Every structure is written in structure tokens, then in C-alpha cells.
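Q: I have four molecules that I believe assemble together. Could you output C-alpha cells for the complex as a whole instead of separate predictions?
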Amino acid sequence: MKPHLTSINDIAKALNVSASTVSRALKDHPDISEATRNKIKEFAAKVNYRPNALALSLKKQVSNTIGIVVPELVHHFFSSIISGIEDIAYSKGYRVMICQSNEDFQREEINVQALLDHRVDGLLICMSKTTENFQHFISAYNNQVPMVFFDRVCKAIDTDKVITDDFNGARQITSFLIETGCKSILHLGTHPQLDIGQERLKGYMQALSDHHIVFDPDLVINCDTPKGVEEKKDHILSISRQIDGIFAVNDSTAIAAMHLLKENGYDIPNQISVAGFGDDPVANLVDPALTTVEQQGYQMGQEAMSLLQERLSDKENEIPPRTKIFQPALKKRNSTRLQFKN
Amino acid sequence: MKPHLTSINDIAKALNVSASTVSRALKDHPDISEATRNKIKEFAAKVNYRPNALALSLKKQVSNTIGIVVPELVHHFFSSIISGIEDIAYSKGYRVMICQSNEDFQREEINVQALLDHRVDGLLICMSKTTENFQHFISAYNNQVPMVFFDRVCKAIDTDKVITDDFNGARQITSFLIETGCKSILHLGTHPQLDIGQERLKGYMQALSDHHIVFDPDLVINCDTPKGVEEKKDHILSISRQIDGIFAVNDSTAIAAMHLLKENGYDIPNQISVAGFGDDPVANLVDPALTTVEQQGYQMGQEAMSLLQERLSDKENEIPPRTKIFQPALKKRNSTRLQFKN
DNA sequence: TATCAGATTGCAATCGATTGCGGCAATAAA
DNA sequence: TTTATTGCCGCAATCGATTGCAATCTGATA
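A: Yes, here they are, computed for all four components at once.
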């Protein structure tokens, strides 16, 4: 069951010429006579000849393929980033190989290694939540593999990065909660080792401080998935009587929390306002619609691929590492009070 | 900026042996003395040697890579299918290359061609909505490329297929609508050239017939996305007074329709019941939660990859084409009345 | 007729890894 | 001392495509 696709040698044999003549004829090399060229081109078209990309990559030492590692495709943010990457990649003549780490460090290591084994020209990476050892990245970096991190970046490596201004986004949305009347805001956060988690927490704290509200560490819970909300529902419910707002690190967690509260008789947003982060399309479909900040996944993907492409074209290696920061935009919806209330 | 990764020849030169000796030593060939073997293995480990997958694929004429073409990654159904595929693929030692057609025929053609150029061992395909010409599939099929279609299959090719029982799913959910009191059900359907669209329409019609309801062609609208609902909202609203139920071809369309009706003052489900297809996670998050049928994307992906893997191992080419049919399960939620009402 | 330029085409090496076969040495057997 | 055996390793071809250089042939010029 092995497919047999026509090679340049097959054509050469069939037409009684050498492989080099075929190769030259197909790319209009002036050395080849018109008669021979036409003969070869016609035959190639007839048998639907296509150059073997593996052989080409091996010979040219360039695969025109870039590798992507994302935590999970099922999240809209990541799949829209990938669309952004792909659209730029296609337009520049690159193919992409997509891998999921499933938020698992070992799978991430294997993925990076496999992509390097396939000699991708560069890497686009969003780290898994559980990655604390960066040796696989450092090793690739030391081997001169061009790489761009996006969203969850690796601080240990000085390369291109595309990120959201998580601090500012969190500060904005927390401020909005406070300005619409919230005085006691629960933060559902993510793993402390993730930069985005730290930044969003800092933004939350900064907003409190901006409004002279004392930070209460008991109002921060490590809980960043709907499953996490389910697991910690007793904790969340026990705390729910003393809060009037929730800022969750992402939309799905915010929505899960909102459902939990609704089920337990809370009026959203009048008793408790709920806000998320990311502006997943779901945010607009739930009831009440979720207030959140928009992360421009598609554009971030485009930017990441553009940075990588520039680096790949930079033969003299003179581009310094760059960091592109996307400003998230507040999306006011009905899961939070819209006006100031005292 | 080209990465330099160590090759077997680099090792050979460094240790003053031949490349063949290195190759044999690394795979414990008995011809190589223990001393030489250890020396080579130690050096290889030190420089972090990894075999070039391109060279291996070229030499062995097997890439251990399979190609996937899906319409769009952002849909949960497709990304969960991919997770199912990947998990099986990894466990069998295969890598995957994922392509999106964006529901565009030409992009699909390009994707298939690019995957074949990369000499994938097999293809896993879900056709785009706009594909009406199957030459790119037929050509691959004629070249003996093992392929499995899933969800949206290509009838023109006699190969493995993994599908949902769309007819039965549509019949079930339409029957449920009727049995809970609906007498006039609008169907929001997809392109007629898609099998899944035809089957779901047939299932809908069969359910009507089962319950002695006369089919009304005016109650079928070609509308299969939230955007489509927006575009046809006047049509839908003009028809809304004469209906008491909607069966949409997928969940996102059903939800969009539900929102449209809610905005226009309809009570869901008491005035109009709404049902979807697919059981996207969103279905459970909207209010009211959407009644739908569950399509087991992850399991379908696993099955598709398993079929392909069996075919790849079938050197004698004696496995006949198989079709696996997944039965969708009704998920009763609150967007439809739960009891019979007259 | 000898020589040369120009037009065509093939040879062979290369990319990285694999593998059948042959070669060389040391040791054992005759 | 000669022959055979065994252990260990390298040569060279191969996968598909590219490319510098050499080779061949034609027709033209001296």
C-alpha cells in the first residue's frame, strides 16, 4: 500500500535523458533546447509530476516549513492565532506543522524535538502551563533555530515575542468593576509560574491600589478552568457572600463561575458582577453576556509569523529580538453593572 | 540564521570512522565492537544527535507522517476530532500535519497537494462545503495513497469512511420536537451538495412523515452559520409567526436563531422550541441550554486514525473499504419543551 | 582540413541516513 | 607455513533533486 509518485528519475528514464536535464528543463534553464524542454514539460504534466518536498528540503537545507506548538487547539484563542499564522505563512510560501502540548510538559518537549527532527525552518511557540524547565527551548535556541514565542513566553530566552498587555488588560477590567460599584472582587487566577498569570494578578492588584482598596490574598484562588470551578465550588460559594465581583483569568472560567452563582440563586450582575479575559465568542452567547477584554488572537498570529518570516530572511542575523505588545480592549456587556452604583 | 544540527557524517568525521559505522553503532548492530559502539553513542549523546527525519523518510520511503485536512480548526467538532486523531497517531508512532481548507475548494486542493508533496503516508480528510470537484481526491486515490474520510465524505471514492448517522440524528431530534408539541418546524439546513446536509434533511422529512405531518418546502432555509442567520433574519422572522419549532443543522446556527428570536420577544421554548446538532460545549452554556444531538468528535477522530493505521500496515492491500457509523445521542435541554404539550 | 566557439547534455558530488557486500586483520585449524 | 574462520569496519549505491564542470556535437571560420 505504498503510494508510488513519479520522480524526476522516472521521467528521465522514460524519455531517455538524464535526471539533470529533466531538472533543468522543468525550471526553464537556458541550457536546455526548446524541443527537449517541451518534451519533458509535456510528459511531466501528463504524469502529474510533483517535486518531492523531502528531497528538496534535504538538498536545499531549507524546508519552508515552520513548526507551531500550542497548548490546545480546542480553545478559540489558540485556533484563531493559528489561522493568523497560517494566512501569513501561506502568503509567504511557508507550510506549517501544528502540534498540541495538551498543557503537558513532556508532550511539549516531544513536539519541539519532532519539529526539529523534521528540520522546520523556525518555531512558533506558546508554552504549556506546566512547563518549568526550558532546556528544550534553550537547546533549540543555541542551535540557532529562529523562534518566536506568543502569549505565554519563555523569559529565559532572548528572542522575538508577541504578547498581550496582560497587566493593563487586568487593570482595566478590574478598574471597570470597581468603578461600577464592586468593592470586594474575587480573582480566579492561573498558575503563578505563568507570566500571564502574574501579570494579570498584578494588574488586578494595581487597580485595587489605584482605587485605595486593600488587597486581600484570600480573594485570590488558583482556578483557571471550568473543571477547576467545579472542583473548588465549595470554596467559591463559601466566599461568595462577601464579594460583589469576580475577575477570572479567562472567559471559560468566568462563565463557569457565573453559572455556579446563578444556580445558587445569585443575581448577575446585580449581586455579583462577573468579568473574564479573552473575548471568546462564547462570551457573547451566554446570558448575561460576559464583560471581558478582547485579545486579538488572529492579529497576534499574523504578527508572530511576520516576525519569524523577517528573521528567516535575515541572513546576516542582524535583527535584534523584538517584543510586540497587543493592547486588549474592554468589552462591556451585561455580566457587570454598566453604571456606577454606590 | 540557518540552524546547524549534527549529522551522522559530522560524528563520523569527529571520531575518524565511517558514516556507516556510526549508523550501525547507534542501532546496536552486532558487527560493531563494543568499544566503538560506546565511543559513538557517548559522542552522539554529548552533541545531542538526532536523526534527520527528512533523510530518513526519503531513504525509507515512509514518512511516518499523516496529513489531515479539515475545514476550520475553530470549530469544536473539528478540533476535538483532531485530538482524537493525534492521540491514536502518537501512540502508533505517527506525526500529523494539519491543514485548514477554510471551506474553500482551492485551498483544499492546495493542501492535499502540499501534503502529498511532503510524502505523507496517508490522508485524513473532511471535505470543504464548497467542494464539488473531486479530482484532487481521485488523483491521490489512484496513486494508492491510503485515505480515510470523516464526517463530510467523498462519495466518488471507495475508501474508508467515518461518519455520523446524520439521518437518524435528524430524525430523532425532529421526532422529539414533534412529540413535545411542535407542529410546524423550520429547518435551517446546509448546502444541498453536502451529504450530511442531505441526510439531515431526509431525517427531518422522515420524522415529519412518521408523524403524518406534510412536508412544507417553505420551511427549509439554506442557512448554516450565525452569519447566515444574520443575513436571513428578515426571512426567518417573517416565517417565525407560523412555526413552533426550529431544527438547525448545527449548534452555532441554532444558537444564533435562538438569540434572534429572543431579541424579538419570543419565549423559548414555550413559543418556539429550538434544537441544534453536534453538542458543541456552547450548547450547555447558552440560556436556555440547547437541545441537540451529541456527535462524538474525539471518538470519530480516534476511529479514523485507527482505520488509516490498519490500512498502512496492510502491506498486501487486502482490507476492503470500511464505513464506521457513529450514532448520535439526543441531549434534551431547555431550549425545547420537555414534555408533551398539545 | 584544422580549430574554435557555442549549444546541449551528461557525469558526479551533495544533502543525511541505510545496508549489501567486500576487505582486512587476527586467530584458529590443518 | 598455509588456509579457513571470525570479527570489525568501510565502500558504494540508494532515496529525489540540484548544480558545477566536463564532454559531445554542430556549424563556422581560418
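A: One point stands out. The mean pLDDT of chain B is 95.
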